[in-house]
Design goal:
24% of the residues lie in helices and 19% in strands. It has 259 residues and is α+β, with helices and mostly antiparallel strands.
């Protein structure tokens, strides 16, 4: 099951090639921080062209881990972080509920370690982008005077995955093809906290796609992880009290920068 990815309010206009004119003269800048350089365009440009130019600079990139963001006032996810952190703090201090307190604090501490950057909802594969007009949007401006500033994070293929959430040892572990969640937990001696959801986890793949992962003995399902994936085990949800919060956390993690 694929969770809908929240789409930010962004200044990206979907135009046909016929609408690209010289009047759109404001600059488009694309930061490539991992390569310590930038791409610069003096007029509107298609996504595929940015990906082609970026690949020339980093030919060994792991396409699935590409992360493109528009740098604007909402790109740091401040409102989402504040909401989630407040809810976890409330649960961490809830009276007479030690298991909820412990698990909530553990998840809060982990989430605070990461940087988040609002990911744009594009599949960042050059061949896919060029396959049809609908998958190759034009990045343009709302007016002639306002430029756009993007950040494209490119990295090589990871050799690890991240285990996190309501567990006693959140950690990076070596990626093993065909291993399931139980294999990682058992082989790395990772135990669930008492407040953990013991039948459902979430997989966030490097491209930000989320998949629900039933892993109880009665509902187990095989889900394969890509190198660089994050596996999150959320809070146990009695009468659905933590269901919405778990989903909010997973949504935030789809925008996490790097592994």
């Amino acid at each position: 099951m694929i969770s809908p990815r929240s789409i930010a309010s962004i200044y990206v206009v979907f135009l046909s090639m016929l609408c690209i004119g010289e009047a759109l003269a404001a600059p488009i800048t694309v930061e490539l921080p991992n390569q310590q350089t930038e791409l610069y365009y003096s007029k509107a440009v298609r996504l595929s062209q940015i990906l082609i130019d970026a690949q020339r600079i980093e030919p060994d990139r792991f396409v699935l881990a590409n992360h493109l963001a528009l740098l604007d006032k909402k790109s740091d996810m401040a409102a989402e972080k504040k909401d989630i952190f407040n809810q976890l703090e409330q649960r961490a201090s809830k009276p007479n509920n030690e298991s909820l307190n412990q698990s909530s604090q553990a998840i809060l501490d982990q989430l605070k370690q990461f940087t988040y950057l609002r990911r744009l909802p594009y599949r960042l594969d050059t061949d896919w982008a060029r396959s049809q007009i609908s998958t190759d949007p034009v990045l343009a401006f709302q007016n002639e005077n306002a430029g756009l500033h993007f950040r494209l994070l490119q990295s090589t293929r990871s050799t690890q995955i991240r285990l996190m959430g309501a567990i006693d040892k959140p950690t990076l572990v070596p990626f093993k093809p065909h291993w399931q969640l139980s294999d990682y937990l058992e082989n790395h001696h990772v135990n669930l906290l008492s407040g953990a959801q013991k039948s459902l986890a979430f997989v966030i793949q490097p491209d930000g796609e989320m998949t629900q992962l039933p892993y109880g003995w009665w509902n187990g399902k095989e889900v394969y992880f890509a190198p660089g994936a994050t596996i999150f085990i959320g809070l146990r949800s009695l009468a659905w009290e933590n269901e919405e919060l778990n989903l909010k956390i997973v949504e935030l993690l789809t925008h996490k920068v790097g592994l």
